[in-house]
Amino acid sequence: MSRAKMGTSLACIKCPGKYPLDKIRYRCECGGLLEVERDLSKLDPSKLLKTWEKRWRSKRGVDASGVWRYREFILDIPEDMIISKEEGNTRLYDGGKAARFAGINKFMLKHEGENPTGSFKDRGMTCGISAAKMLQAKTVACASTGNTSASMAAYASTADMKSLIFIPEGKIAYGKLAQALAYGGKTLQIDGNFDAAMDLVQKICSELDIYLLNSINPFRIEGQKAICFEILQQLDWTSPDWIVIPGGNLGNNSAFSKALMELHGLGIIKKIPKIAVIQAEGANPLYRMWSYGSKFAPVKNPDTIATAIKIGNPVSWEKSMKGIKWSSGTVEQVSEQEIMDAKAMVDSAGIGAEPASCCSVAGARKLVDKGVISKDDFVVGILTGNMMKDPDSVIGYHTNKLEGVKGNFANAPIKVKADVESVKKILLS
Ligand code: F0G
């Protein structure tokens, strides 16, 4: 019997259904999503805090991972089963120019693009792949807008597993496609969007007995909780007023609320930060539900320059909604122009992030304008992916070549003859 079974189970979010951890399962018999439920009552919070501080001083190995440092809340498996790249340990920057743009005095940006494959997905993937090993999976699969596939391919290669990737053809950022191919993932470009790929991968996984590593997989969510743990540890366990985060398939913000519930339940944090989820206007099913009070309905042809979150039928909308309500948070949407202008600010602050990430800054600014966030609130924004994932969007913006988006803060390259006089003319004019 694996140690993972002790006091832990997969619990349905909709009914009392419970399942053991050592059987592959993503949904309850009733169709509801599953989440890892663990008995935290035996944990001593003050001892935990000391252990986590000590582990953060480790130079190598599992303790040096910004996910496994918190392993009491991640997955209880023997160390030799853990596939880790010492992920996490990402910086929490002062927002600088981006904070001033948003109109917030204390706005910090947690840069998850500093993970080993350049996105927050590595946090969930180290846990997901380790679970795959525990469950003796040989092949893993995912549908992806790019980052999940890059991360899965890298971790699967490290674990000596095969990886199978479904991506929407021609619709993912080039840097991410390059990673999937380079890390050795078998990459299938389907003639449909992400939602079609998500649908297809679930069918293929159940027919061919392949382990599914999208965020419908509850172990992915457990790993992603570590973003929240780490932010709070960086802040000496004092909560910000708000955490602002982009939303696509809605796994990440579900992980955040779960992390906060657990920390609050144990008394490690006293105040619950409000979670604000930001969607792109063209891919906004959660925003529609939230603002019109309507039932969930997928957006048929989602479209946005933030290709990472070009998702119309997010699998985790129920978990997400539950968590946002619990935190007294909100949902906002932002336009293409707002995303790219916010990105120009994040980039020129010397921080840099891919378009979807910058929804955090664009959304925070909008919520300040609407009076939902106060300029004196302490806000943490999540930058989910690295700037170099999508250089096309950067060049397009700065050369004013993006359809429907103006390069309001463009910094275009200047052509100049290769002689001193010509250069001086430009510099001194
Ligand atoms: N930001 C980036 C950079 C992403 O890659 C994603 C999701 C999100 C935000 C949204 O997170 O789905 O948990 O709400 N990317 C997935 C992928 C869908 O396939 O890489 P979410």
What's the gist of this structure?
The chain has 429 residues and is an alpha/beta fold. The chain is built from 14 helices and 13 strands. It has a six-stranded mixed sheet with strand order 4-5-13-10-11-12, sandwiched between helices.
Could you walk me through the main structural features you see in this protein, from its secondary elements to its overall organization?
The chain has helices at residues 45-56, 97-102, 121-134, 147-158, 174-182, 194-208, 218-234, 251-265, 285-292, 317-326, 336-348, 359-369, 391-398, 420-428, and strands at 8-12, 18-19, 34-38, 92-94, 106-111, 139-143, 162-168, 186-190, 211-212, 242-246, 274-280, 330-334, 378-383. The longest helix is centred in the middle third of the chain and has 17 residues, at 218-234. The chain contains 14 helices and 13 strands. Helix 4 links the parallel strand 6 (139-143) and strand 7. The structure holds ligand F0G. Residues 119, 121, 144-148, 215, 246-252, 308-309, 354, 356-357, 384-385 line the site of ligand F0G.
